[in-house]
Amino acid sequence: QVQLVESGGGLVQAGGSLRLSCAASGRTLSTFAMAWFRQLPGLEREFVGAISRDGGSVSYSDSVKGRFTISRDNAKNTVYLQMNSLKPEDTAVYYCAAKATGSFWGLYSRSNDYAYWGQGTQVTVSS
Question: How far is CA 4 from its chain centroid?
Fold first, then answer.
């Protein structure tokens, strides 16, 4: 079992930046591939970005590519999502997710791939 807690959300103006953190406890994060998803009320969770166990591989959705950066610090058991050039359409609840995997390089973009989820943090971008 691993517990995930997101933080760093808030209200920001369009064009601004936020950095989300996802702190893990219960197990070492280095055994998990990680990802960020976001969700609006009534809609399915949308893939934002993923990072491999060793941090050497990342992937992003087209909607955030070039603006968002996912990273991890396994020594701190924490994953980050740096969000720059924020747009009103980035407004959502952001979730981090963990997938136990034997692959050091695997990336996973489907929500069904992930067994562990945080409680989410709200990001609101005003125009």
Answer: 11
